[in-house]
Amino acid sequence: MSPTAVLHSEWIKIRSVRSSFGALLAVFAVALVFNVLLYATVGGPEPDGAGDPVADALFQITFAQIAAIAFGATAVSSEYVHGAVRNSLAAVPHRSLFFAAKTAVVAVAALGTGLVTAFVTFFSGQAFAGEHAIGLGEPGALRACVGAGLYLALIALFAAGLTFLLRSAVAVMSLLIPFLLMVSFVVGDVSAGVADYLPDRAGRQILHQDPVGALGPWAGLGVTALWAVAALLAGWWAVTRRDA
Predict the structure, then answer these.
(1) DSSP readout, 176-231?
(2) What is d(CA 147, CA 49) in angstroms, rounded to the nearest whole number?
(3) Which of 85, 104, 187, 193 has the fewest Cβ atoms surrounding its Cβ within 10 A?
(4) pLDDT digit string (tens) for 51-92?
(5) 8 A C-beta contact, residue 37 and residue 190
(6) Neighbours of 121 (CB within 10 A)
(7) For the chain, how far is it from start to end, CA to CA, in angstroms?
């Protein structure tokens, strides 16, 4: 099969597997619903201007990342249900091509959904913020929206790479979700310098108007990218070296 045909077949798999497609839609739905509820209830940043209005506007990306993990994991784990990967490799004997196509489709789908999620979440929240609403002209706002989309894509790829390695979405989600939601806080209490280089804390620097810590917004996102690349390299090794 040609690379184009392989990419097309992988996109069909994403759309046809309800668990992965549902998780992709959940990235958008979770962020939007939680953000509207938060802003409709609280009204956004404090009237005295305390806090970080850009980070407040994109706070729900913290919850959307859970759906991004689920998407990356289920998009890959569907290959290991009932030995489906054997059929995939029979159709695409070049294992690196199969891996690259699957990864590329996950990346594009997650990035597109992540960018739409970030911008829609930002504007929907500001619609309820009244006189405290901010726009994309606010310092750091445009960078944060674009960065949020990139961050969600990287988290999905991180999960996808680990799923290629472990062959189980349940195992990956059981590891990553507690890791991203709790470990960085625990490590941060012990050693903030170490926590700054964890994938979630480093990547979410991009969401802040004035990031704090050792890393800047783009450097932090770069650290998250390195985590994703490491997971993908491990996944590629597993696909090319292990028996199907």
Answers:
(1) HHHIIIIIHHHHHHH-HHHHTTSHHHHHGGGG-SS--SSS-HHHHHHHHHHHHHHH
(2) 23
(3) 193
(4) 788 888 888 898 899 999 999 999 999 888 877 788 888 888
(5) no
(6) 27
(7) 19
74 backbone dihedrals φ, ψ, rounded to 5°: -75, -30
> 27-48 burial by CB neighbour count: b if 16+ within 10 A, else e?
bbebbbebbbebbeeebbbeee
CA 95 to chain centre: 25
Q: Give this prediction's pTM.
A: 0.91
**Are the beta carbons of 199 and 227 closer than 8 angstroms?**
yes
Q: State pLDDT tens for residues 5-23.
A: 888 888 888 888 888 899 9
Other CB atoms within 10 Å distance of the CB of residue 5: 12
